[in-house]
Amino acid sequence: MIYPTNAADKLGFTEIKELLQTYCLSDMGAGLVQKIQPMNKFDQIYKYLRQAHEFKEILKNDSPLPIRDLYNIKVLAEKARVEGAFLNEEEFFHILLSLNTVFAVINYFNERGGLYPNLEALFEHLPVEKGIVKHIENVIDQKGKIKPNASRELQDLTFSIAKAESESRKKIDQIFKNARDNNWTADGNLTIRDGRLCIPLLAENKRKIKGFIHDESASGQTVYMEPEDVFALNNQVRDLEFEKRREIIRILTVLTDLLRPFVPLLVSYHGLLTKFDFVRAKALLAIDLEAEMPELKKEATINLVNAKHPLLLLNFKKENQTVVPLNVKIDETDRVIVVSGPNAGGKSVCMKTVGLLQLMVQAGLLIPADSHSSVGIFRQVFADIGDDQSIESDLSTYSAHLSKMKYFVEHSDAKTLVLIDEFGTGTDPQFGGPIAEAVLESLNRKKIRGVITTHYSNLKVFANANEGLENASMLFNNVEMKPMYILEMGKPGSSYAFEIAQKIGLPQQVLQAAKNKIGVQQKKVDTLLVDLERDKKALLESKIEVDKKERRYKSLLEENEKLKAYLEENKKTILKDAKLQAQNIIRDANKLIENTIAEIKNTKADKEKTQELRNNLQHELKKNEVKEVSRQKAVESELHQGDWVKVLESGAVGIVMDITKDNVILAIGELRSVVKRKRVQKIESREVPKEIRKSSYSSQISDSIAQFKPELDVRGMRGEEALYEIEKYLDKSLMMGFPSMKVIHGKGDGILRKLIRDYLKKYPQVTRLEDEHLDRGGDGITYVYLD
């Protein structure tokens, strides 16, 4: 139910219906559009939305649907229902064309086998009775005329008429030639008078030929005579034509009798054509509006994402302008949105967008909003928009508003969507504000849902202090003094009355006088709102920075935990390898010493020989030491991507992903770490524990480096989501030493571009930002150059 009755007009729903009618091919489809009203049954609404969505998919992605000839065959079927009545040739031809369209449509969907289930349901269990077409085609030709051979009698009559006309023509041509040779005729040729072929004779010669005079010229000098010999032949033709007409009527009557049992089926076919014309119109409108099917919910909730007012969208399209999208959420927590802000800032458009899109969804129409928007179902929609003063009803503007408020309070409930524009206006603000607050309090107790626009400060304060109400404001650029048409939830907005007046050029003394006249408290509230908006912007920037640092902290903490777990897991292996290496060194040294002692014993402790063996021992030990030092230096000096290294402090083994200046990017297990070059020691592959080698991290890391591209597409993302992705890509680009990265954010209204660029400027590693070349995207792409 919509209250008052003109609310649909005020919200623009009537205009949407009128626009939808222009897309219909037939009067029947347009008539169906005229009847549509918002529904409140979930299954019914969902079915109509799915039908429009499926037809839109056909128009955009499939072969054209063969909808060509749409005639009102219901009227013709009702005429055929009457015993003794018959349809004429043109009417049968319209039925024939319409049935061909019906069967072509049914065949179209049968070929697609369940691809469009909701559209197929329109003709489910509807039989294809081609016998009707066969009967009509036996009588009516492709031009809509009765066939000469529709019956044997008609064929004979047609032949007889042609023969009689030929004889008549020959006879009159002969008489005319004779009269012309005798100079009895006037200027001109044979002519038709009263449906009869006549000879133009000079008046003085009219008695020279026997016949019937049908007419004479205005001057009386020429008479038009039908010769007596031709008269009988023409009468014969006339009689034959009457017989032919009677035979045609008999044939059409028989054909109508054959059609009569199929009248209910013809009515069903008519309904199918009407519905398809109607759904086709909805799909075409959806394409022009860039509309989608939102998620439909049974609860009385609204969550519109990037929604646009459909009528505003179409007007802006003509002028090559774009509409700023609206994001608004109404649920159990925030049931009523109290929107404030400057005049001409978009408050009313915001409220009307919510109301109009709600009516469109409940009427089965797709809406210009993202497909992941969600829309619930309301039993009632109450709207108070504009001036409804009435001379007939003796109602002033404010009285009309109060009458509506009375109805709202008495009849609203939790399933009611209430829309009020400029709540409380129309009377003395000293009294209008408190009355509006009391009405709002009463409506809030009934747990209604809705959007209310206002300039009254007491309503902003009331919304801030009560559960179920949420302040929102239309953003205003107080530097350029221009509205931004963006709805921001969570805070009231200033009217910017003095700022706008100053920009328009109102004299300073007038402005100052006005400021002196308003209450001190009101001035403080308005100033507070302006300051609050400025502070909230700064707070948002700080929040983004804090979130960034928090994510960084969590990342480092997670990295540290992974490293700790890796070290704990591989501690025994590392110690075992170290002990084994030490044992090998000791074993080799002992072996050398034992061999030396054995040789000393064999030489019976010969002094010279013993000294020689000692020198050889020292030489071998120094030689091994030099080799180890050389090996270590070689390891340290030659470090490449893919080499295995050991972290000196922890003993952790990892593989080199990349080398940037004095830093080495390592992969230790699944962990990535950046360490100073001097803190790692290169080791041979054979020294790497088997379990680490088996995991083959090197191939994964190499693939990761090969696959990584410093290019990120954030189109379609929300602000915080985009910044989070940019931060991750920026960190990777810096770690891998890329000199620049590319961020694709699109053009749109420039809001996302500004947010991203302001964010990137805070990074000390970012040296400059540039637009892409105009031919390759222009300011829809930002190049980020890194230090």
TrEMBL record:
The gene is mutS2. It comes from Hufsiella arboris. Residues 712-787 form the Smr domain. HAMAP family: MutS2. GO terms for biological process: mismatch repair; negative regulation of DNA recombination; rescue of stalled ribosome. Belongs to the DNA mismatch repair MutS family. MutS2 subfamily. GO terms for molecular function: ATP binding; ATP hydrolysis activity; ATP-dependent DNA damage sensor activity; endonuclease activity; mismatched DNA binding; ribosomal large subunit binding; rRNA binding. It is an enzyme of class 3 (hydrolase). Endonuclease that is involved in the suppression of homologous recombination and thus may have a key role in the control of bacterial genetic diversity. Acts as a ribosome collision sensor, splitting the ribosome into its 2 subunits. Detects stalled/collided 70S ribosomes which it binds and splits by an ATP-hydrolysis driven conformational change. Acts upstream of the ribosome quality control system (RQC), a ribosome-associated complex that mediates the extraction of incompletely synthesized nascent chains from stalled ribosomes and their subsequent degradation. Probably generates substrates for RQC. Keywords: ATP-binding, Coiled coil, DNA-binding, Endonuclease, Hydrolase, Nuclease, Nucleotide-binding, RNA-binding, rRNA-binding. Its EC number is 3.1.-.-, 3.6.4.-. The lineage of its organism: Bacteria, Pseudomonadati, Bacteroidota, Sphingobacteriia, Sphingobacteriales. This is Endonuclease MutS2. ATP binds at G341, P342, N343, A344, G345, G346, K347, S348. Residues 539-627 form a coiled coil.
